[in-house]
Specification:
Layout: E1 6-7, E2 10-11, H1 12-19, E3 23-27, H2 28-41, E4 48-54, H3 61-69, E5 73-76, H4 79-87, E6 95-97, H5 104-113, E7 117-120, H6 123-136, E8 140-147, E9 169-170, H7 174-186, E10 190-196, H8 206-224, E11 232-234, H9 252-270, E12 276-279, H10 283-286, E13 290-301, E14 306-310, H11 319-323, E15 329-331, E16 339-346, E17 355-363, E18 370-374, E19 395-399, E20 402-407, H12 412-416
Parallel strand pairs: 3-19, 4-5, 4-12, 5-6, 6-7, 7-8, 8-9, 8-10, 10-11, 11-12, 14-16
Antiparallel strand pairs: 1-2, 3-13, 13-14, 13-18, 15-18, 16-17, 19-20
Helix pairs in contact: 2-9, 4-5, 5-6, 8-9
């Protein structure tokens, strides 16, 4: 009998049979360890620190339980992420609310739910937040997002701080920042706390974070000379994960040490009074903890390729089509067999681009075998869709030999629940 894949003490082949496929499986132990590692190593005796989990990578009440238990805060980017945190009884004062175009409804909702900090992306957004804060009588803290003009070496869709980025206030416009700070201070419902920046995702170069910190602390020093106190600095996230053998992410202790050392050095060099430093890891916490299990439904040989067809695809993992993301995989019920079959793993969606992995060596498989695709914990479920009217897969957390379903499979009835025929008065 061939060896089968075991994750956190749970047999993945047995799990696939119990839940059906596709199914997304997360190692709870792996996520807890990563949260604890960031919390443990992001420490300074010069200023306070706070880890904010970037919820866009993957969010559900069970995930938020882990974040809360670890003592971390939460980075949200939409009204929906704020709402799920509120429903999960997450401490709202530990939430940062990001986004480049928060709607009036989202701002209103977030203020009423007690979101602790708004990350203000533009002058127009600030006007909206001030107006709605005055209207609701709700108070909050404000951090201004800065575009530091630092291009991380990553996919162009993952770069968030080049000169033409849609995010933040350009670092070469201090007069705009000062005007925004003045308006925040003049509003009795807002408290200005500092700056935020984010330079991209899946970053392997420690130097990028050092450059970001030096740039931002330099900006803080320039504004402090003009009498503006900037107590907080949030440097965002972007910490990488391992998808294939070509990836070499910076270990958590090392990246935290780099950040703390750079921040302490910059604060001393520029003579600024930083009170608190924030980071926002997301992918690096959940990506490697997650795998997706599929059932192999068939094969096809073309002139130059051998396809393995799986019962999921771009509806549960859009990243290969969107970012040309790379993945690794195994036939989960043949773990001890030689990887001698070069195949392309294709999904079931009606798109030629629905390819999860191209030209990879795997164990020789048969129809009905279980294919495990690794490192799908970040931006898999959160970017899943109903394309081709395919339901989203269930999510299962495994730990110490036990499994629990935290999101059930989406059914045809679930997808039909929003459909209606209502007359509108226009």
């Amino acid at each position: 009998m061939s060896k089968e894949l075991i994750i956190d003490g749970v047999n993945m082949v047995s799990l696939a049979k119990a839940t059906g496929t596709p199914v997304m499986v997360f190692s709870q132990t792996e996520m807890e360890n990563k949260l604890a590692a960031f919390k443990k190593h992001l420490v300074s005796d010069k200023f306070e620190t706070q880890v904010l989990y970037a919820g866009k990578a993957f969010t559900c009440p069970a995930m938020l339980e882990l974040v809360k238990a670890a003592g971390c805060g939460l980075d949200t980017v939409s009204g929906g992420e704020v709402d799920i945190a509120f429903r999960a009884n997450f401490p709202m004062e530990k939430i940062f609310f990001h986004g480049n175009n928060k709607t009036p409804f989202e701002i209103h909702q977030a203020l009423l739910s007690g979101v602790g900090t708004f990350v203000i992306d533009s002058e127009i957004e600030l006007e909206n937040v001030i107006a709605i804060a005055n209207e609701t009588g709700m108070s909050t803290q404000a951090v201004i997002r800065i575009n530091p003009h630092i291009s991380a070496h990553t996919h162009k869709y993952d770069v968030t701080a080049d000169r033409d980025s849609k995010f933040g206030i350009s670092i070469d416009k201090p007069e705009v920042m000062l005007g925004m700070i003045e308006k925040i201070n003049a509003c009795g419902k807002l408290v200005f706390k500092g700056f935020h920046a984010h330079i991209g995702s899946q970053i392997f170069d420690k130097g990028a974070f050092v450059t970001e910190i030096d740039t931002m602390v330099g900006l803080m020093a320039d504004l402090e000379k003009q009498g503006v106190k900037i107590p907080w600095l949030d440097i965002g996230g972007g910490f990488a994960a391992t998808y294939t053998e070509d990836d070499a992410p910076i270990p958590v202790p090392e990246v935290c040490e780099t950040i703390i050392t750079a921040a302490e050095s910059a604060v001393e060099r520029y003579g600024v009074s930083l009170e608190k430093l924030f980071i926002e890891p997301g992918r690096s916490i959940v990506a490697e903890a997650g795998i997706t299990l599929y059932t192999i439904g068939g094969f096809k040989n073309t002139y130059s390729k051998k396809y393995i067809f799986i019962d999921g695809g771009m509806s549960d993992n859009i990243r290969p089509a969107l970012y040309q993301a790379k993945y690794n995989c195994d036939v989960a019920n043949r773990m001890d067999e030689e990887k001698c079959d070069v195949v392309t793993v294709a999904g079931k969606c009606c798109e030629s681009g629905d390819v999860i992995i191209e030209d990879i060596a795997v164990q020789e498989a048969e129809v009905g075998d279980v294919l495990a695709v690794y490192t799908t914990g970040a931006y898999g479920y959160s970017m899943a869709s109903n394309y081709n009217r395919i339901g989203r897969p269930p999510v299962v957390f495994v730990k110490d030999g036990s499994a629990r379903c935290v999101i059930r499979r989406e059914t045809y009835a679930d997808m039909a629940i929003l459909e209606c025929s209502e007359q509108l008065d226009v």
